[in-house]
Amino acid sequence: MSSDNKTCTVTFLPHDRKILAEKGTSLIRVAMDAGIHINASCGGEGVCGKCRIQTENGELADGITERLDAEDIAKGYRLACRAQISEDVTIRIPVESTVDSAILDVKPPPRCTAAVQHMDINSLKEQGLFLNPIKKTYLELPPPSVSDNLPDVGRLIRSLRDKADWHKLELTIPVIRRLPDILRNNDFKVTATLVRPVRDNGKTRIINIQGGDTSSENYAIAIDVGTTTVYGQLIDLSTGKVLGEKGLFNGQISYGEDIISRIVVAEKQGGLEKLQQVIIQTINEILEDIFTNTGVDRNNVSTITIAGNTTMMQLMLAINPAHIRRSPYVPASSLYPPFQASSIGINANEHAIALLYPLISSYVGGDIVAGIMGSGLYRSEELTLYMDIGTNAEIVIGNKDWMACAACSAGPAFEGGGVEFGMRAAKGAIEDFLIDPVTYEPMIITIGNVRPKGICGSGLITMLAVMYEMQIIDSSGKFNREKGSERIRKRNDVWEYVIAWQEETQIDRDIALTEVDIDNLIRAKAAIYSGCMTLMDEVGLSIDMIEHITLAGGFGSYIDLEKAMTIGLLPETDPERVTYLGNGSLLGARMSSLTNRIRKDVVEVTKKMTNFELSETPSYMDNYVAAMFIPHTEVDKFPRVKERMESRKKN
Amino acid sequence: MSSDNKTCTVTFLPHDRKILAEKGTSLIRVAMDAGIHINASCGGEGVCGKCRIQTENGELADGITERLDAEDIAKGYRLACRAQISEDVTIRIPVESTVDSAILDVKPPPRCTAAVQHMDINSLKEQGLFLNPIKKTYLELPPPSVSDNLPDVGRLIRSLRDKADWHKLELTIPVIRRLPDILRNNDFKVTATLVRPVRDNGKTRIINIQGGDTSSENYAIAIDVGTTTVYGQLIDLSTGKVLGEKGLFNGQISYGEDIISRIVVAEKQGGLEKLQQVIIQTINEILEDIFTNTGVDRNNVSTITIAGNTTMMQLMLAINPAHIRRSPYVPASSLYPPFQASSIGINANEHAIALLYPLISSYVGGDIVAGIMGSGLYRSEELTLYMDIGTNAEIVIGNKDWMACAACSAGPAFEGGGVEFGMRAAKGAIEDFLIDPVTYEPMIITIGNVRPKGICGSGLITMLAVMYEMQIIDSSGKFNREKGSERIRKRNDVWEYVIAWQEETQIDRDIALTEVDIDNLIRAKAAIYSGCMTLMDEVGLSIDMIEHITLAGGFGSYIDLEKAMTIGLLPETDPERVTYLGNGSLLGARMSSLTNRIRKDVVEVTKKMTNFELSETPSYMDNYVAAMFIPHTEVDKFPRVKERMESRKKN
Fold first, then answer.
1. Positive or negative, the Cα torsion across A28, A31, A32, A36?
2. Is there a single domain that holds both residue B401 and residue B341?
3. How many CB atoms within 10 Å of residue A642?
C-alpha cells in the first residue's frame, strides 16, 4: 500500500484497517465506503456532533466546528463529516463499549460501485463508426448569367456535385422557397445543410440553406423522454462534444406517476392532446435552457434524436396508447419515420428533423434499444445482461448475435414510492448507511451533506442489506424483536427502525424504515430478479454464463453492487463484471446524433431482439415468489452472502 | 356527294355550292363554315332580320320569327341564324346587286379547324403506360393475440406483403397516429392507400388508412393553373374517366392581367402572401364545386397533380418570383418534390399529395411540359411543332429524341387586350365573321348566338384574314381608303371598320375594328411567328421539315387554321397536319394522375428540352420585323395566300 501525490493512506483504529483515499475526500465517506462505522446522524451537516473521531498521526483538513471545544481540538478530536483527507493520517474511532474485534471483522463488504462506461468518440472514429448524419457545406456559387441561367436549385445542386460526390440530392419545398432570396442577399455564398442517407444508395437531402459560411455551427439535440424525467443534450457535431445538458421532471407527472396512470388519463376526452402538449412543453423548456446557457443558435440544430419508452413516444406523437396497457399489449409501431420536429410543437427551426429510436414492444421501448446501441452490447462478443432499473425494469440478454428482452413492473419502491420516508435522489436524501454492530446506532450520509429528509433508492438498498447482514431483519424482512435498541420499535402496530430522530432531521419527524416499507422493497427486488431469471430460463442460460452486466437508468450510478446482490436485487456475480452506463437512453440518442452507422445498424438490431411477455410467462410468478426473501429462497444462488452470513453466525 | 341519316346536302344559290351538313346545324353556321356570305349582324339572335334566305327545295326546321310576315313565310323566307338543317335543302341567298360569280369564287377558303386530339386511355393501357400511381388495397388483418402481438404498423405491413409483393413500405406519422383506433373500430378490416414508387426499387408509401373497404373510391385531381384561368378535373383512377370539371378565372386577375404585373405585386410588402392566398382560394373554389357536383368524398382523393407556368407555380408555393422577370430570368427550381397539398392551404385531406409538373425555364413552364407529355410529342417519331398560344406563346420543336423550346411575349391582343372591342371567348363575343365581297356588309356569329358585345380571339383572326383577302386592309394592316362603304370610316383620326351598329349590339355602341387594333394584332402574330422561325433557325430546320403541328391553349379549339395562316400567325402548312390539343397543361396533369410512367418519363423529357431565350437571340427581332406584315414581308413563305391574292387581283 503506497500513497502518491493525490492519494493518502488512512489508518482506522481500533480496526487497524488501512484505506487509500483521494485527497479532499471527506473522512466519513472514506469510512463508509470501507464499511467502517462511525456514529453519524445529521447526514454530514456537522450539527449532530456524533461523528467525533481522534487523529493520532497526521492531520485532517477542517473538521473543526463549534461542537468541539478547545480542549477536544487540542487532543485531535475532529468531526468526521466535516474533515477532509489531506495527508496520510491515523484515525481512532471511539467505541462505546469494548468491541470484540471479531464483530468488527464481519462487517458488510465495503462499498463497491460499478465502473462507469463512458462514450468514447475517438474509439468510434477509429472503428469507422463516426459517420456524421448531418453535413454542412459552404458553397460559393457562380452568379447566373445569360449563358448560364440554370434555376437556383439546379445551380446549388451543380455546385454540391462539383464539390463532392453528392448524388441523388433532394430538397424540400421550404428550402426551395427560401433559396432565391438567400442566394441573392449573400452574393451566392451560402451554407447547405445535408442529411446523409442512412442506407447506401439512399438520397442525400438538402434540408436547410443559410447565408454565408455557417458550416462550423452544426449541432444536434439528443433527448431521453422518461416517464419521470426528461433529459436533453446539445451536441457539437464537429467535435462530438456535449455543449449543454438539462434534465427536468416530465411535466406529465401531475397526471400520474407511472405509465399506466398516464394511459388512463390519455383515454379520457382531451387527455391525449393534453399529455402531448405537456411533454412537448417540458422538452421546449429543456431546449430553451440549453440554448440560453450555451448561446448556441437553435437554427443551427438540424436533428433532434429522441429515445423514450413506448408509451412516452406514443403520447409525444399523440398516438392513442390505450392498447399498450391491455393484453396482448400492442404498440402502434416499432419504427417511426423521420419527421419535422416542429410538426409536433417542438420549438426548433422548421428544417430540424426529429428521429425516434425504434422499439421492441409495448414495454421494451426505444429507451432500451438506445441503451443497447449506446452501450455497444449489439457489437459485443460478451454475453451481457443489460438492466435498466426504474419503476419498470427492462432486461436484455445477449450479444452481437442475438438478444432477448423483457420488461417487468417493479413498482416505485426504489424510487421512493410506497416507502414512508422514501424520496428521489435529491438533496437531503440518505444515500448511504451503516449500523454499529453492537449499539445499532446508524451512520448516515445524505446527498448534499445536509440533515436528512428521507431515503433515496441507493440508500434503501444499502439499508436493507446492512440490516440483513446485521441480523436486524431476517430473510423475510421482519425485524428481530429481540434486539435491545430503542431504534427498533413498534409504532402504530408496525415494527420499524429509526434512522434519524426528529431533532436530527429537516422534517421534524423521526425518519424510520418500517416492515411495510421493507415488504414493498422486497416485492420490487423480487420482480426485477424474477424478470432476469425468467428471461434467462426462457433462453436456457444460467447466471454464471453471463460475462458482463450493464446497469442503466437514473437509479444505478451510486448503487452499491455488493449490497444490491446481498438483498437479491441483482444476481450475485463478480462486481468487476458490472459496468454502469448512466442514462443509456440519452447515451444512445447522443450516439445516433453523431453517427449514421448506429442509425443504420439499429434496424437490424431490433430485428434480432426477441421480446418475451413476462406477464404471459407462467414461470415468472414462480420465480417471483421464490425471490420474496433476502437474498432468495434458495440462498445457494448467493454463495457470497451465504458464506458471510454463516461466518457471522459462527461468531 | 351523298347524304345519310345524319347528314344532309345543303345547296346554296346563286353560288350553286353543295355542302354536307349535320342535321340540327344552324344554316348560318353551315354557310359561314363554307365561306358563303349571308348578311347577319345580330350574332345569331334572330333580331336583326338581315339573314333572310329563301328555301327553294326542301324545308328547314324553325327559322321563323316575327321578323317575317305570313307572306314571306309562305314564299319560303327564313332567318338563316334561327333555321336548322333537317333534310336536304336548296337555299337561295338574296344578293343586293348582280354579283359577278367570279367574285363569289374568290371567297376566302372555307373554315378549317384542327382535328382535336383526345386522350385515349385504352391506348395508354395497350402501350403498358397505365400504371396507376395510387393503389387502394382492402385488407382483413388477423386481430392481435398473445402469441401474435406485432405492433399495428407491423401487422399492416405483413398483410400488405402477404397480399402482394409490396416491399420497401414506408408510412407517415399521421397514418401511424390513426392506425390503432381505425383498426379496432373496424374489426381490423381496413383499406390502405399506397403510392407506388415512380422509380424501380423506390419505396411504396402508405399514405392513408380507412375503415372498411373503400378500394373502389380512388380519385385524383388534375389542375391547370393558368395566369388567366384555372381548371380542375376530378378523375376516377379505376376507370381513368373525368367525373367532374370546373374552370374559374384566376382570382389573381384583380392584381394584374399578365405575369409581369403579378410579379410586380408579389415584390411589394405582403404581395406574395396575398397572391398565394388568392390562387389557393381559386383552387379551393374549383374543388368545392367539383366535390359538390359529383358527390365524391374529398377524403378519397389522394393526389393533386398541378401544372402551370413558372410564375404561377412560384406564386402558389409563395416563392419570390422577382428573378423570373429580370435577365437572366432565373426560376427557383425546375423540379419540385411531392408535398402535402394541405400544407399550402389546398382544402384536401391531410394525406393528399401535391405533384407539380417540372419546368424548363422562367417562361417555358410546367404547363408546357405537361402539354408535351399529354400530347405524346415526347414519344412521337414525327418532327412536331407544339404551340401554346396565349398572352405568352410557348413553342416546342422536336420529337422523342430531342426538343427545343422557347417562349415569346405575344401580348394580350388575341385574348382581347389592346383591342378596343376585344374580349375573351364568352357569350356575346363575335367568333366568326365574313364580308360580302361587293357590299362589305358583315356576316357575324357570336358565342351563344346573342347580340354582339365584342370580338374574341378566333373572331379577330378571322376578321383580319377576311379583311385582308377582301382587300379592305392591305398587307401593312391599313384600310383601303377607296372602298365605298359607310362601314369603313375615320373616327377620332383613326380608320376603322364597323362590324355592328350600335342598335344591333348589347353595348349600345358601334362595334368596330380600328387600325390601332389591327396594329396590335399584327404585333402579336409577328411575335409568335418570329418565335417559331427563330427557334427553327436556331435548330437548323425549315417549316417544310415539320411533320406535325400541335396547337394547345384555351385559344385554339375554334381557331380557323387557314385564316391563322393567312394572317401569318401560323406558318403555312397542310391543315391536315395540325391537331388541336385543347388545354395541354390540364391534359398532361390528368395523364400524370393516371400513370406513373409519365411521372417517370417526364424527368428525362425535361433533360432533353433545350431552352432558347428569344430575348437574348438577335435574329428574333429581325424575324419579328419581317413578320410585321400580312402575311409576311416575304409572301413566298405563304404560297397559298400568295396564289389566292394573285388570283383575286386577276379578277
1. negative
2. no
3. 16
In a domain, B646, yes or no: no
ipTM: 0.87
Q: Using CA atoms, how far apart are residues A586 and A552, in angstroms rounded to an integer?
A: 10
Residue A545 and residue A492 share a domain: no
Answer whether residue A604 is part of any domain.
yes
CATH number of the domain residue B39 falls in? 3.10.20.30
Here the cell at position A311 is 408509451
Average pLDDT over residues B165-173: 84
Please classify residue B197 by burial: count the beta carbons closer than 10 Å to its beta carbon, then call 0-12 exposed, 13-18 middle and 19+ buried. middle
Q: Are residues B433 and B535 in the same domain?
A: no
Domain that holds residue B326: 219-356
Neighbours of B430 (CB within 10 A): 27
User: B interface mutation test: which of A156, A167, A173 has the most B CBs within 10 A?
Assistant: A173
CATH value at residue A132: 3.10.20.880
Structure pTM?
0.86
- For A614, the closest chain B residue by CA position comes to B146
Same domain assignment for residues A225 and A83: no
Query: What is the helix (H) or strand (E) element at residue B649, kind and residue range?
Result: helix B639-650
Domain count within chain B: 5
CATH number for B301: 3.30.420.480
| DSSP-derived pairing of the beta strands A454-455 and A429-435 | parallel
Residues of chain B with pLDDT > 90: what percent?
A: 73
List pLDDT tens digits, range B508-544: 999 999 999 999 999 999 999 999 999 999 999 999 9
Q: Is residue B367 predicted with pLDDT exceeding 60?
A: yes
Residues of A in contact with B181 (CB under 8 A): 320
Per-residue pLDDT tens digits for B461-471 = 999 999 999 89
CB B561 within 8 A of CB B570: yes
Sheet holding B219-225, edge to edge: B242-249, B229-236, B219-225, B301-308, B353-356, B339-340
pLDDT band at A97 (very low <50, low <70, confident <90, very high): very low
Asked if residue A473 lies in contact with residue A483, where contact means CB atoms within 8 angstroms, the answer is no
Q: Of B309, B307, B392, whose CA–CA distance to B615 is shortest?
A: B392
Can you tell me the distance from the alpha carbon of B125 to that of A637, in angstroms, rounded to the nearest whole number? 73
- Amino acid identity of residue B370, one-letter, is A
Contacts of B45 (CB under 8 A, 6+ apart): B81, B446, B449, B450, B451
B178 to chain A: closest CA residue: A319
Residues B23 and B98 in one domain: yes
Q: Looking at B269-309, list the stretches that DSSP marks H as alpha helix, in order from N- to C-terminal side.
A: 271-294
Per-residue pLDDT tens over the stretch A462-476: 999 999 998 999 999
Q: B318: which chain A residues are within 8 Å (Cβ-Cβ)? A: 177
pLDDT at position B387: 95
Are B378 and B285 in the same domain? no
The span from the first CA to the last CA of chain A, in angstroms, equals: 29
Q: What Å distances lie between residue A648 and A101, A201, A575, A611, CA to CA?
A: 13, 66, 22, 42
3-class SS of residue A422 = strand
Does the pLDDT value for residue B210 go beyond 90? yes
Question: Exposure pattern of B553-579 as b/e (b: 16+ CB <10 Å)?
Answer: bbbbbbbbbbbbbbbbbbbbbebebbb
What is the least distance, in Å, from the CA of B387 to any CA of chain A? 23
Res B649 pLDDT > 80: no
Assess whether B456 and B486 both reside in one domain.
Answer: yes
CA distance B413 to B417: 5
Q: Looking at residue B98, what is its pLDDT? A: 42
B541 and B509, same structural domain?
no
Tell me which residues of chain A have a C-beta less than 8 Å from any C-beta of chain B: 144-146, 148-155, 170-173, 176-177, 179-181, 184, 317-320, 322-323, 327-337, 339, 343, 361-362, 613, 616
